[in-house]
Specification:
Order of helices and strands: HHEHHEEHHEEEHHHEEEHHH
Shape: globular
Mean pLDDT: 82
CATH superfamily of the largest domain: GAF domain
Number of strands: 9
Strand content: 15-25%
Strand order of the largest sheet: 6-5-4-9-8-7
Oligomer: single chain
CATH architecture of the largest domain: 2-Layer Sandwich
Low-confidence stretches: 1-9, 263-274
Structural class: alpha+beta
Distance between the termini: 37 Å
CATH class of the largest domain: Alpha Beta
Number of helices: 12
Largest sheet: 6 strands, antiparallel
Helix content: 40-55%
Radius of gyration: 19 Å
Number of domains: 2
Length: 274
């Protein structure tokens, strides 16, 4: 089993409360595995101490978010978990048009499909559809990618005008982590123009060596936020089947939503979701 060590990744961020991060990461892990899990499985996968994991799970049981099977020594989310956000956007979650669209793209391409949105200075995966047999393991629900150094981030940024893009990139460069190279704003804007013209962006070996992604803007019919849909696959597959994957994505967007990928949005949208 792959050990994601999410807790280690969050530990270096002084703005994240560790107990909150562990609670959220545990619920996300349940969403990925979609079956009852034991204390040992969760502890090993997420890199938590076993005693802390046990205490966390028992607390979630008392709060009504998990059920405990004493005979099998396993835990599983209760109906209270999906009900938390069910009021927000039934089209985006559950079995609405968006979920059906993502599943259709995954079924036809046989690859991982994700839906991302802008969250502060990062792109965050809020939906992930994973085929049973997939060699792509680094794409997980809740994953965050830099807006300036990822394919999904570039597509999200393509929705805004250059003035707002420059403003955000200056902020990203000013607050980047030590050792992280700054984003070349001039080169980024030139690439962004190409992304807008093509209507999608292809990246290979950019975040994970041997893996690639084709992403495109998602029609903004849901709410004020912006979205991008992506297909993740081995780099060689992305390079070989680029045209076919792009065609499938466009066909399914049109079939399920009755519209094509949108044009860049006006600058006020960026300020609304910053």
């Amino acid at each position: 089993m792959e050990h994601r060590q999410r807790s280690t990744r969050c530990a270096g961020d002084s703005h994240i409360v560790k107990s909150v991060a562990r609670t959220c990461e545990t619920l996300v892990f349940f969403d990925e595995m979609r079956r009852p899990l034991t204390v040992v499985e969760i502890s090993r996968h997420l890199g938590y101490p076993q005693s802390s994991t046990s205490a966390l799970l028992k607390s979630l049981v008392k709060l009504g978010f998990l059920a405990h099977d004493a005979r099998r020594k396993s835990y599983f989310p209760t109906e209270q978990v999906p009900l938390l956000g069910s009021w927000m956007n039934p089209d985006l979650f559950g079995e609405g048009a968006v979920q059906k669209l993502l599943k259709a793209i995954s079924r036809r391409t046989r690859h991982v499909v994700l839906l991302a949105t802008k969250n502060g200075d990062e792109a965050q995966y809020i939906q992930v559809i994973r085929p049973r047999k997939s060699s792509i393991h680094h794409v997980a629900l809740g994953t965050r990618r830099p807006l300036g150094n990822s394919g999904v981030g570039r597509v999200l940024m393509s929705r805004f005008d250059d003035e707002d893009v420059c403003r955000l990139l200056r902020k990203v460069n000013a607050y980047r982590e030590p050792g992280t190279p700054p984003v070349d704003v001039k080169a980024f804007l030139a690439s962004l123009a190409e992304t807008r013209a093509k209507g999608y962006y292809r990246s290979t070996d950019q975040v994970v060596k041997g893996a690639g992604l084709i992403s495109m803007p998602f029609p903004n019919h849901l709410d004020s936020r912006i979205f991008a849909v992506g297909v993740a696959a081995p780099s060689e597959v992305i390079l070989r089947a680029e045209a076919e994957i792009v065609a499938i994505m466009r066909e399914e967007i049109m079939a399920h939503l009755g519209t094509q990928a949108p044009q860049p949005k006006a600058s006020h949208a960026l300020r609304a979701v910053s």
